[in-house]
Design a protein that fits this description.
The chain is of the alpha/beta class. The chain has eleven helices and 20 strands. It starts with a strand and ends with a strand. It binds S-adenosyl-L-homocysteine.
Length: 399
């Protein structure tokens, strides 16, 4: 069994922890010298020596551990992890029973009771993301208990805890049998090729499922669609299947060309009938303005931070300008899908960026749809940072 250490919490942090906030701030602990090894179970007490919560010690950029229990006498053992895994699986019954969707999140960190850990399901293959050395010390228990409650063909992992909190590149296969790659999963009936053992990203971002579906079902028909930061072209494929007149996918990464072509191909669409462009998005915007290209729908889903040869993009600083570039090449009455996964600003700030961008372009707009994380990405009300996804469908009005 793990050793447990008693930690005292500064009064300024006690209230939020008592109210259910799950992240343990580095600054919150009075006697930090009491702990050293990640994975240590820590019991948090207020200055009057009253128990607050129980957690584990694990360094992530956000903090130094997560609360995982509110009971002083709870033992963090196999039974504990088994209960958490079981509950998470039970709560995704609807997804397991849906044959048209075979890729979704099974365990979403603090939303399912254990921060620093996520588990995704890809048609009986499970992908575990470990976000600290601390949570990784529980690997054996977590995998053993997951295996008891889930039908698993194979397990892969991503260790996302090198010094900069980044992915450690190694063989990610952990257990079971390996599928032949690409592993083709389904999302609302659409095929998707995923590669579970090719670096940090697997080919699809599962949190955009509802957005992709809506684009296909209600927005794409007859429209020309520009998909920027397109990665493997997921939005483009859904748009094409929804009857888009034409899709144009733009991404800087060389691999995006073959990966996007593959996604079209496995859905019976000739990739040659679509535009797939390997280029810096900001260069493409300039090109489009020069050539007077306009689109009926422009999708913006940039990373929170990216550096290319010529440009550095930081969502919190540059999203407004990105929107202005998009507004300039959107047709009258066209749609801009503005998305961000940046957790350093909230939805109202995001809407301010949108408002300012349109004002500075002297254009009017109307918000048509708004999305946050889907149900399988369970979040806690008290932990707003965990609810990072913001997607807004905006109509550019004809004035
Ligand atoms: N929208 C995608 C996910 C985007 S991931 C989806 O729905 O699946 C971020 C992508 O942005 C990466 O593929 C990366 O190569 C690309 N990228 C980052 N900076 C870029 C830039 N300046 N121009 C074009 N693509 C960029």
């Amino acid at each position: 069994m793990k050793t447990e250490v008693k930690l005292r919490i500064k009064s300024a942090f006690v209230k939020q922890l008592k109210e259910g906030y799950p992240l343990i701030d580095k600054e919150a602990i009075i006697n930090r010298e009491a702990i050293s090894a990640e994975g240590t179970i820590i019991n948090l007490y207020d200055e009057k020596n009253h128990f607050i919560a129980k957690g584990y010690y694990g360094i992530q950029n956000k903090g130094c551990g997560w609360v995982i229990s509110r009971k002083e006498d709870e033992i963090i053992d196999n039974f504990f992890f088994g209960q958490k895994m079981n509950l998470a699986i039970q709560q995704r019954k609807k997804f397991f029973n849906d044959e048209t969707t075979t890729a979704f999140r099974v365990f979403n960190g603090e939303g399912d009771g254990i921060g620093g850990l996520t588990i995704d399901y890809f048609d009986d293959y499970y992908l575990i993301n470990w976000y600290s050395v601390g949570i990784y010390t529980f690997k054996e228990q977590i995998i053993t208990e997951l295996q008891k409650v889930a039908h698993i063909k194979g397990i892969y992992q991503k260790k996302r805890f090198d010094e900069a909190g980044k992915y450690i590149d190694e063989d990610d296969f952990v257990w079971g049998t390996e599928p032949e790659f690409p592993l083709v999963v389904k999302e609302n009936g659409v095929n998707f090729a995923v590669y579970l053992n090719e670096g940090a990203m697997v080919g699809i971002f599962l949190d955009q499922r509802e957005v992709r579906k809506l684009i296909r079902d209600q927005y794409a028909s007859g429209r020309t669609v520009l998909n920027t930061f397109s990665y493997t072209g997921a939005f483009s494929v859904f748009a094409a299947l929804g009857g888009a007149a034409q899709t144009t996918s733009v991404d800087l990464a060389n691999r995006s060309l073959s990966k996007t072509a593959e996604q079209f191909h496995i859905n019976g669409i000739d990739a040659k009938s679509q535009n797939i462009i390997v280029e810096d998005v900001f260069k493409y915007f300039k090109y489009a303005v020069k050539k007077e290209l306009k689109f009926d729908m422009v999708i913006l889903d940039p990373p929170s931070f990216a550096r290319s040869k010529k440009f550095t993009f930081s969502a919190s600083k540059d999203y407004k300008n990105l929107l202005k570039e998009a507004i300039a090449i959107t047709e009258k009455e066209g749609i801009i899908v503005a998305s961000t996964n940046c957790s350093s600003f909230n939805k109202s700030k995001f809407k301010e960026f949108i408002d300012t961008a349109f004002k500075e372009m002297h254009k009017k707009y109307q918000i048509l749809e708004e999305f946050a994380l889907p149900e399988d990405f369970k979040t806690l009300k008290v932990f707003k940072e965990g609810d990072y996804l913001k997607v807004v469908f905006i109509k550019k009005l004809d004035t």
